[in-house]
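User: Hey, my collaborator sent me this sequence without any context and asked if I could get a structure. I don't really work with proteins. Can you help?
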Amino acid sequence: MDFDKNTLIGITLIILIFLGFSIYTQQQEAKYVKEHPKQTEQDKFTTVSITTNDSTKTDSTTTAKAIKQDSIQISKMGGFAAFASGEEVLTTIENEKCIFTFSNKGGVIKKVVLKNYKTFEQKPLVLFEDNGSNFNFSFISNDSKTPVQTENLFFASNIVSQKIIGTQSIDVAYKIDLGGGKIYEHKFTIHGEGYVVDFSINAVNFADVIPANQPITLNWTQNLPSQEGGLDDQRYNSSLHYYNDKKEEDNLTRDKKETLETPIQWVSYKQKFFNTSLIATKGFFKTGAAISVETPKENQNIVKTFNSQIAIPFNHSNAFNFPMQVYMGPNKYDYLKKLNVGLDEIIPLGWSILGLINKYFIGPIYKFLESFISNYGIIILILSLVIKLITFPFTYKSTVSMAKMRVLKPEIDELKKKYPNQTEFGQKQMELYSQTGVSPFGGCLPMLLQMPILIAMYRFIPSSIELRQQPFLWAKDLSSFDSIITWSHNIPIVSSLFGNHISLFTILMAISSIAVTKITSQSQPTSGGNDMMAQQMKIMQYVMPVMLMFMFNKQPAALTYYYLLFNVLTIAQNWFIQKFFIDEAQIHLQIQENKKKPAKQNSFQQKMQEIMKQQQEMKKKNP
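Assistant: No problem. I've predicted the 3D structure and written it out in structure-token form, which is a compact way to encode the shape of the chain:
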């Protein structure tokens, strides 16, 4: 190879420059090491450590573990394993009544807060809260060894937190996309007003993902938090309800496990004033739902724990859709009635005639009064007056009948002396009643006709959510007991009878009941001293108010207040009738006039006389 003179000079200069720079660098490095020996060793150690441990050993171990973990996950969950990890994202949708919190983990409603209500301690009322496994769907997958649990899956969604009102609505959709058009979805529709959320499970092209005849199973557990005053009262009024395809509603109130043998349309977790219910809107959940109720007696913050395992029928379709509704709100009869699925039956208004009285008599009057009166103590007072006015004819007839019996008492005593034989005396007594036109049951029957209303109020008032946290006089909450004395320690016998408090309305109710008993007994004909049964009945009349005091001490103040009003109005009504309508002298004259007329017997009196004649004939044959 030939080089000219200039080329050789250039190459020589480049080599000399490179050698000179290398020598200079080595000299500077040697000088730095001599001046900073410790720092040089530390840098050297760090470099070796990073190179050896992190790059070679740690990375390889971590990678091996990750690969092993992924393979285990895939073998267990199949194609769903890719959705087993992620970051939980919470989204809040608020309407006029509720604040709903959704989670992409499980694709469920995480929490529900009712905006218009507070707890007894005036804290936000959380009706439902999912702690991770409270609302979980599971199903068998063809490529998984264990059932797929939706609580472990992270769903995809593009929804953002927002508020809606009025007629607005919004869809909240959470999806698992397995690819190839295979999509599993939880879809919620929130409306601007109300307590109902539309909910559906959708599965597209899942015919070869879920085996034939395999359901999608919901495991729903809810711990009912204490929200009212009085834990015992809350536990008494909390129950798990269900409605089957035979249009029959039933419930569990005590701790129990049960397997339902018929398909069901809905399941409801009812608290005293609120409920959370899941409703199948176009069909039924499968036969064999397992439900249970448990009372955590040691936990004072939890009323009861409800659990349901409900099978949703998967029809092996590539366009599967199972629509439902979730109601999360108050136990208001009008709200539940509008759902038109029988959910209003969970409100314990009473069976048969009691329910009819509450729904079509007491309820409408009560609703009319609250439309223009805000004080519920005044509403109950007016309602009591209305009921007393309506039942006044029965009370009047009963009082007059008892007055007639008092006037007739001397003649009945004479018959007792004249006919010591009880059978003969009974026959002559019935003849006297027939002659005078007096009915021995005239005082009882009108009062019995009033009893259904009295009992219906026992059902209506404790179920009325409108009374919740409404104060009146000394009662802070008409839906709970009005305690004037409380104690924290367990006092033998006393605590078992009264609980841990004494209610003033209950004491006043008992005192007024004794007063009513005394006034009523004075208006009735006196019994002879030898009439042991009558004496025992008289004693029981005074014992009952005391027993009622123990029974009603834990009842809502509104109920004992109503019975107090009922007693006071009864006393006033009795005085009014006695003062202005009862003239015993005139009644005596009327009875004497009736004796002169031909005796007329009603069918009951005729039947009684026939029975007495038969008894006399039997005694003659068998003396």
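In plain terms: The mean pLDDT is 81. You can pass these tokens on to your collaborator as they are.
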